[in-house]
Design brief:
This protein is α+β, with helices and mostly antiparallel strands and about 290 residues long. It contains 9 helices and 12 strands. Strands 2, 3, 4, 5, 6, 9 and 12 form a 7-stranded antiparallel β-sheet that branches. A 5-stranded antiparallel β-sheet has the order 1-11-10-7-8.
Length: about 290
């Protein structure tokens, strides 16, 4: 079995224009197990409403993630663990939604608040991502950049239906209008996808304050060249601020690396290695 190393870093910034930071970020990497996660929420809803919404959502999901590594989970098979991860993410997001609705009921001044959410969790080489809204997750490795989420937004629906090009979407007056959010209705449906990583990789989780200014090519350039990789979060924030910083900006980086165990290397030294076919970098897990 390969030796897997996970490391995370994150940063959120108010930007150049806003008076309040309505983004929230939480991240964690276990010191003794190959487990890590990043949570990014981008709140909305008037004075202090957006900040409250993103904070409640991020903290609620963080609490569920922190409770995951119990004895029952560790003792399960890999297949069972993957199912538990998916169920835990679903439960965490539903709990966050209920917490927001309860807060709104108790505090009328928060009646219009809501938030996007994107959560990325790594367990060994298994990556699972859940999102609602237009906060995003990207994966980069030696094969390039791949966007792992699809925005729940008006312009994305128009692009999908052929009514608008990607370039037009970037300039649209409704580019920040989302079609799904946390804390808006009693039922919420997160989009959840999972992959098995097969190469060393960097995972970027971010709010739209970053992608407003940096397109996929700019994001890939930073992830491919900025080292140490975890410090690229500061570069992303700085670049977005230099380009205008009209929104709050949040970025989290998870660095995944896998190396053969030392004893395995010793055994393989006398074996002629066959050339490895360039399979796809990541592949969807069976559901």
């Amino acid at each position: 079995m390969d030796q897997i190393s996970l490391a995370v870093n994150g940063r959120t910034d108010i930007g150049q224009v806003r008076e309040e930071n309505e983004d929230s970020i939480r991240w964690y990497a276990s010191s003794d197990k190959p487990f890590a996660y990043i949570v990014v929420a981008d709140g909305m809803g008037g004075y202090s409403g957006g900040a409250t919404a993103s904070k409640i959502a991020a903290e609620t999901i963080q609490s569920h993630m922190d409770d995951l590594l119990k004895h029952t989970f560790i003792s399960c098979t890999p297949e069972q663990q993957q199912l538990i991860l998916r169920a835990t993410l679903t439960e965490a997001i539903n709990s966050a939604n209920n917490a927001l609705l309860n807060t709104k009921n108790l505090n009328p001044q928060f009646s219009k608040m809501g938030t996007t959410i994107v959560v990325a969790v790594m367990w060994y080489d298994f990556l699972i991502v859940a999102h609602i809204g237009d906060s995003r997750a990207y994966l980069w490795n030696n094969y390039g950049l791949q966007r792992l989420t699809r925005d729940h937004s008006v312009v994305q629906e128009m692009v999908d239906s052929g009514q608008m090009t990607q370039q037009q979407a970037k300039q649209s007056n409704v580019r920040n209008h989302i079609t799904r959010a946390l804390g808006v209705s009693s039922s919420v449906e997160a989009e959840i996808n999972s992959w098995k990583l097969t190469e060393n990789a960097l995972l970027l989780v971010c709010s739209d304050g970053l992608t407003e200014y940096l397109d996929d090519h700019a994001i890939e350039r930073v992830l491919a060249t900025h080292r140490p990789a975890l410090e690229s979060v500061y570069r992303f924030i700085d670049d977005a601020n230099k380009l205008g910083g009209r929104d709050n900006i949040t970025a989290g980086i998870l660095e995944y690396s896998s190396q053969p165990m030392p004893q395995m290397l010793a055994k393989e030294q006398n074996v002629t290695q066959r050339p490895r076919s360039p399979d796809v970098t990541i592949r969807k897990s069976q559901r």
